[in-house]
Write a structure and sequence with these properties.
It is built from 13 helices and 10 strands. The chain is an alpha/beta fold and 295 residues long. It has a 5-stranded parallel β-sheet with strand order 2-3-1-4-10, sandwiched between helices. A 3-stranded antiparallel β-sheet has the order 6-5-9. Strand 7 and strand 8 form a beta hairpin. The radius of gyration is 20 Å and the shape is globular.
Protein backbone atom coordinates (compact mmCIF):
# COMPACT_ATOMS: atom_id res chain seq x y z
CA UNK A 1 0.00 0.00 0.00
CA UNK A 2 1.08 3.56 -0.67
CA UNK A 3 0.49 5.79 2.33
CA UNK A 4 -0.13 9.51 1.93
CA UNK A 5 2.14 10.32 4.88
CA UNK A 6 3.88 8.76 7.90
CA UNK A 7 0.96 9.59 10.20
CA UNK A 8 -1.40 7.45 8.10
CA UNK A 9 1.15 4.63 7.92
CA UNK A 10 1.77 4.51 11.67
CA UNK A 11 -1.96 4.74 12.35
CA UNK A 12 -2.52 1.57 10.32
CA UNK A 13 0.42 -0.23 11.96
CA UNK A 14 -0.90 0.71 15.41
CA UNK A 15 -4.29 -0.69 14.43
CA UNK A 16 -2.71 -4.04 13.48
CA UNK A 17 -0.85 -4.23 16.80
CA UNK A 18 -4.09 -3.58 18.67
CA UNK A 19 -5.94 -6.35 16.80
CA UNK A 20 -3.08 -8.81 17.44
CA UNK A 21 -3.15 -8.05 21.18
CA UNK A 22 -6.91 -8.50 21.32
CA UNK A 23 -7.02 -11.92 19.63
CA UNK A 24 -3.79 -13.35 21.12
CA UNK A 25 -5.34 -14.60 24.44
CA UNK A 26 -8.10 -16.47 22.60
CA UNK A 27 -5.59 -18.00 20.17
CA UNK A 28 -3.35 -19.22 23.00
CA UNK A 29 -6.26 -20.75 24.90
CA UNK A 30 -7.68 -22.40 21.81
CA UNK A 31 -10.96 -20.49 21.96
CA UNK A 32 -10.45 -18.75 18.63
CA UNK A 33 -11.32 -21.42 16.05
CA UNK A 34 -12.09 -19.92 12.66
CA UNK A 35 -12.40 -22.26 9.70
CA UNK A 36 -9.55 -21.45 7.27
CA UNK A 37 -11.50 -22.76 4.28
CA UNK A 38 -14.48 -20.49 5.04
CA UNK A 39 -12.26 -17.46 5.66
CA UNK A 40 -10.33 -17.94 2.43
CA UNK A 41 -13.40 -18.78 0.40
CA UNK A 42 -15.07 -15.55 1.44
CA UNK A 43 -11.90 -13.60 0.70
CA UNK A 44 -11.38 -15.16 -2.72
CA UNK A 45 -14.95 -14.30 -3.71
CA UNK A 46 -14.09 -10.62 -3.40
CA UNK A 47 -10.55 -10.63 -4.80
CA UNK A 48 -10.53 -13.75 -7.03
CA UNK A 49 -6.83 -14.25 -6.36
CA UNK A 50 -5.11 -16.81 -4.15
CA UNK A 51 -3.21 -15.85 -1.05
CA UNK A 52 0.51 -16.52 -1.41
CA UNK A 53 2.61 -17.34 1.65
CA UNK A 54 6.35 -17.99 1.64
CA UNK A 55 8.17 -20.14 4.22
CA UNK A 56 11.55 -19.15 5.68
CA UNK A 57 13.72 -21.34 7.86
CA UNK A 58 16.95 -23.32 7.88
CA UNK A 59 17.12 -26.65 6.04
CA UNK A 60 15.61 -29.32 8.28
CA UNK A 61 13.36 -26.90 10.19
CA UNK A 62 10.24 -28.63 8.89
CA UNK A 63 9.21 -26.15 6.19
CA UNK A 64 8.31 -28.89 3.71
CA UNK A 65 6.29 -30.91 6.23
CA UNK A 66 4.45 -27.89 7.62
CA UNK A 67 3.97 -26.46 4.12
CA UNK A 68 2.33 -29.68 2.95
CA UNK A 69 0.04 -29.80 6.00
CA UNK A 70 -0.88 -26.11 5.65
CA UNK A 71 -1.72 -26.59 1.98
CA UNK A 72 -3.96 -29.51 2.94
CA UNK A 73 -5.70 -27.60 5.75
CA UNK A 74 -6.38 -24.56 3.55
CA UNK A 75 -7.21 -26.56 0.40
CA UNK A 76 -4.24 -24.90 -1.28
CA UNK A 77 -1.11 -25.78 -3.23
CA UNK A 78 2.48 -26.25 -2.02
CA UNK A 79 5.35 -25.31 -4.35
CA UNK A 80 8.64 -26.70 -3.04
CA UNK A 81 11.64 -25.08 -4.71
CA UNK A 82 13.90 -28.06 -4.05
CA UNK A 83 11.44 -30.53 -5.57
CA UNK A 84 10.87 -28.32 -8.60
CA UNK A 85 14.61 -28.09 -9.22
CA UNK A 86 15.17 -31.82 -8.59
CA UNK A 87 12.45 -32.63 -11.13
CA UNK A 88 14.17 -30.43 -13.68
CA UNK A 89 17.59 -31.89 -12.89
CA UNK A 90 16.54 -35.27 -14.27
CA UNK A 91 17.05 -33.88 -17.77
CA UNK A 92 19.71 -31.26 -16.87
CA UNK A 93 23.05 -32.79 -15.73
CA UNK A 94 24.61 -29.41 -14.81
CA UNK A 95 21.70 -28.58 -12.54
CA UNK A 96 21.91 -32.03 -10.95
CA UNK A 97 25.62 -31.51 -10.22
CA UNK A 98 24.93 -28.12 -8.60
CA UNK A 99 22.21 -29.58 -6.37
CA UNK A 100 24.41 -32.47 -5.24
CA UNK A 101 27.17 -30.05 -4.24
CA UNK A 102 24.82 -28.11 -1.94
CA UNK A 103 25.52 -24.86 -3.79
CA UNK A 104 22.88 -22.33 -4.77
CA UNK A 105 21.33 -22.55 -8.23
CA UNK A 106 21.51 -19.47 -10.49
CA UNK A 107 19.00 -16.91 -9.18
CA UNK A 108 17.52 -16.03 -12.58
CA UNK A 109 16.99 -19.72 -13.33
CA UNK A 110 15.22 -20.31 -10.00
CA UNK A 111 13.14 -17.15 -10.46
CA UNK A 112 11.84 -18.27 -13.85
CA UNK A 113 11.17 -21.84 -12.69
CA UNK A 114 9.17 -20.74 -9.62
CA UNK A 115 7.30 -17.98 -11.42
CA UNK A 116 6.18 -20.41 -14.14
CA UNK A 117 4.92 -22.97 -11.63
CA UNK A 118 3.29 -20.27 -9.50
CA UNK A 119 1.36 -18.94 -12.50
CA UNK A 120 0.00 -22.40 -13.17
CA UNK A 121 -0.90 -22.89 -9.50
CA UNK A 122 -2.71 -19.54 -9.32
CA UNK A 123 -4.75 -20.51 -12.36
CA UNK A 124 -6.00 -23.64 -10.58
CA UNK A 125 -6.77 -22.41 -7.06
CA UNK A 126 -8.51 -19.47 -5.39
CA UNK A 127 -7.43 -20.30 -1.84
CA UNK A 128 -3.73 -20.47 -1.02
CA UNK A 129 -0.35 -21.12 -2.62
CA UNK A 130 2.61 -21.81 -0.32
CA UNK A 131 6.17 -21.21 -1.49
CA UNK A 132 8.80 -23.34 0.25
CA UNK A 133 12.30 -22.06 -0.46
CA UNK A 134 11.71 -18.86 -2.44
CA UNK A 135 13.02 -16.22 -2.25
CA UNK A 136 16.27 -17.44 -0.64
CA UNK A 137 18.54 -14.43 -1.01
CA UNK A 138 18.63 -10.70 -1.76
CA UNK A 139 18.97 -11.22 -5.52
CA UNK A 140 15.86 -13.43 -5.65
CA UNK A 141 13.98 -10.91 -3.50
CA UNK A 142 14.90 -8.16 -5.97
CA UNK A 143 13.58 -10.30 -8.84
CA UNK A 144 10.42 -11.02 -6.83
CA UNK A 145 9.71 -7.30 -6.53
CA UNK A 146 9.43 -7.18 -10.32
CA UNK A 147 6.62 -9.75 -10.36
CA UNK A 148 2.98 -8.67 -10.84
CA UNK A 149 1.31 -7.87 -7.52
CA UNK A 150 -1.00 -10.89 -7.73
CA UNK A 151 2.06 -13.19 -7.71
CA UNK A 152 3.87 -11.64 -4.74
CA UNK A 153 3.62 -13.27 -1.27
CA UNK A 154 1.50 -11.36 1.22
CA UNK A 155 3.02 -13.11 4.25
CA UNK A 156 6.14 -14.99 5.36
CA UNK A 157 6.28 -17.66 8.07
CA UNK A 158 9.63 -17.94 9.85
CA UNK A 159 10.35 -21.38 11.33
CA UNK A 160 12.81 -20.67 14.14
CA UNK A 161 14.70 -23.93 14.87
CA UNK A 162 18.29 -24.31 16.24
CA UNK A 163 20.99 -25.59 13.88
CA UNK A 164 21.76 -28.79 15.78
CA UNK A 165 18.14 -29.90 15.59
CA UNK A 166 17.97 -29.08 11.88
CA UNK A 167 21.08 -31.18 11.20
CA UNK A 168 19.65 -34.14 13.13
CA UNK A 169 16.36 -33.98 11.23
CA UNK A 170 18.10 -33.70 7.85
CA UNK A 171 20.20 -36.79 8.53
CA UNK A 172 17.03 -38.71 9.37
CA UNK A 173 15.03 -37.89 6.22
CA UNK A 174 13.85 -40.90 4.21
CA UNK A 175 11.54 -41.43 1.24
CA UNK A 176 9.90 -44.75 0.42
CA UNK A 177 10.70 -45.82 -3.14
CA UNK A 178 7.57 -47.97 -3.26
CA UNK A 179 4.73 -45.78 -1.97
CA UNK A 180 6.44 -42.36 -2.18
CA UNK A 181 5.89 -41.55 1.50
CA UNK A 182 8.21 -39.09 3.29
CA UNK A 183 9.40 -40.03 6.78
CA UNK A 184 12.07 -39.19 9.35
CA UNK A 185 13.81 -41.82 11.47
CA UNK A 186 15.43 -39.31 13.85
CA UNK A 187 13.69 -37.94 16.92
CA UNK A 188 14.59 -34.86 18.98
CA UNK A 189 14.10 -34.24 22.71
CA UNK A 190 16.28 -31.32 23.83
CA UNK A 191 16.03 -27.66 24.93
CA UNK A 192 12.24 -27.72 24.98
CA UNK A 193 11.92 -29.33 21.56
CA UNK A 194 10.13 -32.66 21.49
CA UNK A 195 9.93 -34.03 17.94
CA UNK A 196 9.42 -37.79 17.70
CA UNK A 197 10.40 -39.67 14.52
CA UNK A 198 7.89 -39.43 11.69
CA UNK A 199 6.98 -43.04 10.87
CA UNK A 200 4.02 -44.59 9.03
CA UNK A 201 1.14 -45.27 11.43
CA UNK A 202 -1.16 -46.87 8.90
CA UNK A 203 -1.53 -47.53 5.19
CA UNK A 204 0.44 -49.44 2.59
CA UNK A 205 3.93 -48.37 3.70
CA UNK A 206 3.54 -49.93 7.14
CA UNK A 207 2.26 -53.22 5.75
CA UNK A 208 3.86 -53.74 2.34
CA UNK A 209 7.07 -51.69 2.22
CA UNK A 210 10.40 -52.82 3.65
CA UNK A 211 11.84 -49.94 5.66
CA UNK A 212 15.37 -51.34 5.47
CA UNK A 213 15.49 -51.69 1.68
CA UNK A 214 12.73 -49.48 0.27
CA UNK A 215 13.42 -46.31 2.25
CA UNK A 216 15.98 -44.14 0.47
CA UNK A 217 18.12 -41.24 1.67
CA UNK A 218 18.66 -38.18 -0.51
CA UNK A 219 22.09 -38.06 -2.18
CA UNK A 220 22.74 -34.60 -0.72
CA UNK A 221 21.75 -35.48 2.86
CA UNK A 222 25.25 -36.05 4.20
CA UNK A 223 27.06 -34.07 6.91
CA UNK A 224 29.39 -32.17 4.56
CA UNK A 225 26.64 -30.91 2.27
CA UNK A 226 24.27 -30.26 5.18
CA UNK A 227 26.92 -28.05 6.78
CA UNK A 228 27.27 -26.15 3.49
CA UNK A 229 23.50 -25.70 3.22
CA UNK A 230 23.27 -24.35 6.77
CA UNK A 231 26.06 -21.87 6.04
CA UNK A 232 24.32 -20.66 2.89
CA UNK A 233 21.08 -20.17 4.83
CA UNK A 234 22.70 -18.01 7.52
CA UNK A 235 24.67 -15.94 4.99
CA UNK A 236 22.02 -15.41 2.35
CA UNK A 237 18.51 -16.33 3.52
CA UNK A 238 18.34 -15.34 7.18
CA UNK A 239 19.00 -11.63 6.40
CA UNK A 240 15.73 -11.60 4.40
CA UNK A 241 13.84 -11.57 7.70
CA UNK A 242 14.73 -7.87 7.96
CA UNK A 243 12.97 -7.26 4.62
CA UNK A 244 9.76 -8.81 5.91
CA UNK A 245 10.00 -6.97 9.24
CA UNK A 246 10.39 -3.66 7.44
CA UNK A 247 7.39 -4.50 5.24
CA UNK A 248 5.14 -4.49 8.32
CA UNK A 249 4.71 -6.63 11.42
CA UNK A 250 1.56 -8.24 10.02
CA UNK A 251 3.56 -9.72 7.10
CA UNK A 252 6.03 -11.80 9.15
CA UNK A 253 4.86 -14.62 11.41
CA UNK A 254 7.49 -16.24 13.64
CA UNK A 255 6.79 -19.83 14.66
CA UNK A 256 8.81 -22.15 16.92
CA UNK A 257 7.64 -25.77 16.39
CA UNK A 258 8.59 -27.12 19.81
CA UNK A 259 6.42 -30.21 19.36
CA UNK A 260 6.85 -30.80 15.66
CA UNK A 261 3.68 -31.64 13.73
CA UNK A 262 1.73 -31.82 17.00
CA UNK A 263 1.76 -28.00 16.94
CA UNK A 264 -0.06 -27.93 13.60
CA UNK A 265 -3.37 -26.68 15.04
CA UNK A 266 -1.52 -23.83 16.72
CA UNK A 267 0.11 -22.81 13.43
CA UNK A 268 -3.20 -22.95 11.55
CA UNK A 269 -4.78 -20.72 14.22
CA UNK A 270 -1.93 -18.21 14.00
CA UNK A 271 -2.02 -18.10 10.19
CA UNK A 272 -5.80 -17.71 10.16
CA UNK A 273 -5.61 -14.91 12.71
CA UNK A 274 -2.93 -13.13 10.73
CA UNK A 275 -4.92 -13.44 7.49
CA UNK A 276 -7.99 -12.01 9.20
CA UNK A 277 -5.91 -9.16 10.62
CA UNK A 278 -4.63 -8.36 7.13
CA UNK A 279 -8.19 -8.39 5.82
CA UNK A 280 -9.37 -6.05 8.58
CA UNK A 281 -6.46 -3.69 7.96
CA UNK A 282 -7.02 -3.81 4.21
CA UNK A 283 -10.73 -3.06 4.66
CA UNK A 284 -9.98 -0.18 7.06
CA UNK A 285 -7.39 1.28 4.70
CA UNK A 286 -9.55 0.93 1.58
CA UNK A 287 -12.46 2.47 3.49
CA UNK A 288 -10.26 5.44 4.40
CA UNK A 289 -9.26 5.85 0.76
CA UNK A 290 -12.90 5.83 -0.36
CA UNK A 291 -13.78 8.47 2.22
CA UNK A 292 -10.78 10.53 1.12
CA UNK A 293 -11.89 10.40 -2.52
CA UNK A 294 -15.40 11.57 -1.65
CA UNK A 295 -14.08 14.75 -0.05
Amino acid sequence: WNFRDKKQKYSCISFVHTINKLIAPWQRQGHLRISPSITLQQSSMSSQIARIITLIGPPGSGKGTYGSLLASRFNGVLLNTGEILRDRSIEEPDLKSTLRSGKMVDDAYVNNAIRMRLKNAIANTETMVILDGFPRNAAQTKLLRQWPKNLRPSMAIHFDVPDDICVTKQLGRRKCSICGGNFNINGVDTNGFNMPPILPEEGACKVKCNWDTDWKKRDDDNEEIIKERMGVYHRETEPLLDFWKESGNERLLKFVPYNGVKDMDKLVSLVTGRINTQQILKGKFEGALRRERKR
